[in-house]
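Pilot study result, target chain (433 residues):
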Amino acid sequence: MMSYDFLLASWGTLGNLSPMLTAARRLRQNGHHVRVMADPAMRREVEASGFAFVTWRRAPTGTAADPVDVSDIQDFLRRAVFDPAALYAADIRDEISRAPTDAVLVLDVLFGGALGAEAADVPFALLSPHVSLRPLPGMPPATSGLTQPKTPGERAEVDAANARQAETINAFLPSLNRARADLDLPPLADVFDLFDRADRLLLATSQAFDFQADALPGNFRYVGPLLDVPNWSKSLETEAWRAPWSVRSGRPRALIACSTGAQGQRDTFQRIIDAMETVEIDALATAGPNLDVADLRAPKNVHLTRGAPHDLVMKDVSVVISQGGHGTTTRSLINGLPQLILPMGRDQAANAARIEAKGAGLQLPPTASEADIAAAVNRLIAEPRFKMAASLLGEAMKADIDRSSLVDEMEAIAATSRAARQQLRKLPLHKSA
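Predicted structure:
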């Protein structure tokens, strides 16, 4: 079996890195060499997974790369995606020159990383560890929170939302094309044409969870969820999981999971915890790495902690409350758990819309009152249809994980690249007269 050299490029938080490391492990299991390029803060997690770590050198890191405040989407796109695109491209190109690279797998939001691979003439795949950022006909854009259109009016609303997204993103087309020109790459007519230039666009979710598009691009593949437990969470599992509630209470149990990213979620998280005081439930609330437990308060029926092994906790609860990150959303479904989502991030609203549309849970705005949160949790516990829908989706996801084509797709583009280079070396050299 041929062994290939892969460069994987991530960005931002552990939430983005974790699915990339799952992909890395699958490639390594098939005998391939993998190195991971990521934020310096991710070094420990990457090296603990046994992969060579490469840091971004020119490109921004920390909150300069992944701003906490995303209230102004155009400002976020400018600072995080387009202004530093040339810097990401330079780092990727340098790394490809430094070490053998048959193909690159880059997080979909790293437009500059895609440019670097394209400029180095190395095949690349974009990994979307959430719903598709690329607009798809008939499917609402990821940032809209809209649902699958069923009527002509709803279809018109979705089409208008896609048009607005295109207008927003293409305001940065001149900036992107300047970066491309500096790399001797041809200009694009539309920012999202970059997705079509990728050899593969790998969507790390299940088609059963997603909405249905009119048609899919030729390079588009659903490869199923990428859900390995991160090392920081595994360390929690080394200690025996001890449930904070009494087995004799007989009450339903809930997991309240705060996002691993910094999204200004403190007030929302506190409101969720406070709402549980009026619900006949025992709950575990995990604050995550970006909130200080000492700055939070909890009623007697809520056990508050910085972290806990969610995969183990989910086997012991009947409902999950979160902001709707893709990892938490997917793990909940795989465990057959209905969810209440209060989305705050860009992809979280899309996940919430799908969960609600599929009947596997409910969504509320992050400003929802304690009374509304309590009422939604009571519904999820009392109405069995939510758990039935979640279980059906979870079974489909587990099947997709088992038959994932991610490794096959990466091997296919790497083989094409390797063969082309070998053929080039065989060509005769022509001396000038």
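One observation from the pilot: The CA atoms of residues 351 and 390 lie 13 Å apart. A full batch analysis is planned for the follow-on phase.
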